[in-house]
Amino acid sequence: MGKQIFYRGYLTSCNYACGYCPFSKRKMTNEQREKDEKALWKFIEKVKQEKEKHAVQIVPYGEALIHEYYWKGLAELSRIATEEYTGCQTNLSFSVEKMLEIYEKYQGKKEKLRLWCTFHPSMTTVEKFVEQCEKVERAGVSFCVGMVGDPKESSALLQLRKSLPDSVYVWVNKLEGQRQTYTKEERKLFQEVDPYFSLQLEHRRAELQKCRQSFFYEADGSRYFCNLHAAAKGSRSGEKGCGRSECNCYLAYSNRTDIEELLFFEPYPAFRIPTYPKAIFLDVDGTIVGEGEKELSDFMAERLRRLSKKCRLFLATELPLIEAMKKCRKIADCLEGGVFAGGGLIRIKRKDQKIWEQRLPLKTILSKDEQANVERKYQVQFRSYKKGDILYRQTLFTKRRGGWTLEERSKLQKEIEKIAEIAHQHGIPLIVDEAHGAHLGFHPYFPKSAITLGADVVIQSLHKTLPAPTQTAILHWNSSYIKKERLEWFLNIYETSSPSYLFLASMDECVRLLTEEKEKYFDAYEKRLKDFYEKASHFSNVEVMGEVDLKETEGFAKDPSKLVLRATKAGLSGEELYQLLREKYHLQLEMCQGDYALAMTSIYDSEEGFDRLYAALEEIDKKEAAARRTITPQFLTEAYAKRTVRISIAEALDAKTAEIGLKESVGKTAGAFVYLYPPGIPMLVPGEEISKEAVAVIKTCRENAFHIHGVTEGGKIKVVIS
């Protein structure tokens, strides 16, 4: 595929008077037209110098194809050897026969011509517009059709779709300037007409590195990365940066290389004309099934189902057949077969629905002794796939359980990106409470901050992990979903009008230190932490959680600055360890819960501080005591089970309440929040029914000295009374 080239001249006139268009019914003088024509031919001369394959799309502010010189220009462009396609946006408000005659008169190549035809229901009828489209189709010119997604014109859109052949792609552009978002019903309607309509509603942060090779030319010769870049007066090509916050129109995001749906508009998505091959072979992991996902998403399944109606779908994967089909079970009936097990198995569904299979035997097979040696040396296991006497695949998998390498952790951090993506698909901003993560993102030893993972607003408490006084915090804004002005307005409401200048000065100093001296402090911090973890790994009765101790179900990454301690082998609960370190060794930890105690560290913790903590834990480790029974967290699964909602939270909080014993509360309606801290997630919400299972969990938490809020020391809970 070559580069996409866009051109917008001086033309700002149109023969239509659409209410949403600023250029409607604007007339140009002869002088202005001459100026526009000269600019067009100057642009064409530039295009002639292109040595690589390319396509040109004319995107004017007005209707260009009512003017003969534009048809002459399109003809001239189509004759350029390196130009594969040439096209223009149009309302089709001209004599198709006459203008195509002019195009052919100047030796224009119809096989290269592409028309992007827009229907305007306020200016013409569906019948007349479809008649024009039929003339374009009979002439053998490739085209697409569409209109603005105005809910008031839904009937016209449906009529348009019904009146055109299925082979003609009908697109829907989102209506700009709406005060309200589309309803669920409206989105569904537009999606049924245009299967790619949802792309219009997604907000994508502008990232120059994700743009394909494309250029946007202005009439004065200026060249930009895309139309939005030009409108923003961003940097010209060759310079760093984009100058835009997001790609929010089709011409802009048609340049993106990270939008899978654009695959079906290749080789030049800007023309908006889908091209469906006879067959497509799809990889599974990392392609149609995202990193860390167990199976195909509903979003991807829907699109592949639509695609299967246009062409045959096959899989081409390293996965064995059973594992691949398990991940792709949502579209199993749409798949025609594939190449599985890295080429070891070929499977095709014939026209009569019968299955043809062929397995290709491995050429090199290790003996059992050789396999055993490999397994011992590398801590792996062989898994063999065979049918009859044919061994067609062998894989190795690790015996290691839990814990991730830094590389694995970076992959898992994409969970936040996935959450952001899902939220943004629905026009919802993502706000992340990153109170304990102000230090994140400043050094590769620590996980990334949500700031860099797609979150729109991130709040951090500077004082928790960075050198700043208590009550200092910072809010990061990086969003097109939340207007800066609106955010500032709410901050003015909730922030104090009399801030502490000492606090403000300390925050400035903290920012300065991170800007000018972060390498110095964080490199030393990393070394102190690594040294501590290395020394602590030799303890017998005190455990310091490391990367390998974290299971996938327990979190996606461990922040090494948080020292998670357990001393059950030394006979201590988390609470007892916390109090012992505080009272005897004068070391103040952050919190404790169950078997665990948490020590917070920061870049300002000295080597002497780490040595004191190590010495205290070493002394505790040497004590001979009966091991304490370990608390298993399995009961917490029930703690966060879905409860029956009886009344709203507001109704419950306003209602009369009484405190009664836990046993008596079963079947009653909760009158207050009940939650563990950490993590601070409610086990009961006001208005929910208090189940027998919930009471059992609460009792277990209390018996094991978990910090539970919403239950009195005497074991009473607040309930709603009638």
How would you explain this protein's 3D organization?
The chain is α/β, with parallel strands linked by helices and 722 residues long. It folds into five domains: 3-271, TIM Barrel, CATH 3.20.20; 279-398, Rossmann fold (3-Layer(aba) Sandwich); 406-509, Aspartate Aminotransferase, domain 2 (3-Layer(aba) Sandwich); 520-621, Aspartate Aminotransferase, domain 1 (Alpha-Beta Complex); 633-720, Orn/Lys/Arg decarboxylase, C-terminal domain (Ornithine Decarboxylase, Chain A, domain 4), CATH 3.90.100.10. β4 (113-118), α4 and β5 (142-149) form a beta-alpha-beta unit. 29% of the residues are buried. The strands form eight sheets. Strands 6-5-4-3-2-1-8-9 form an eight-stranded mixed sheet. Strands 11-12-13-14-15 form a five-stranded mixed sheet, covered by helices on one side. The chain is globular and about 100 Å long. The chain contains 24 helices and 29 strands. α2 (68-78) packs across α3 (96-105) and α18 (518-536) runs parallel beside α20 (607-621).
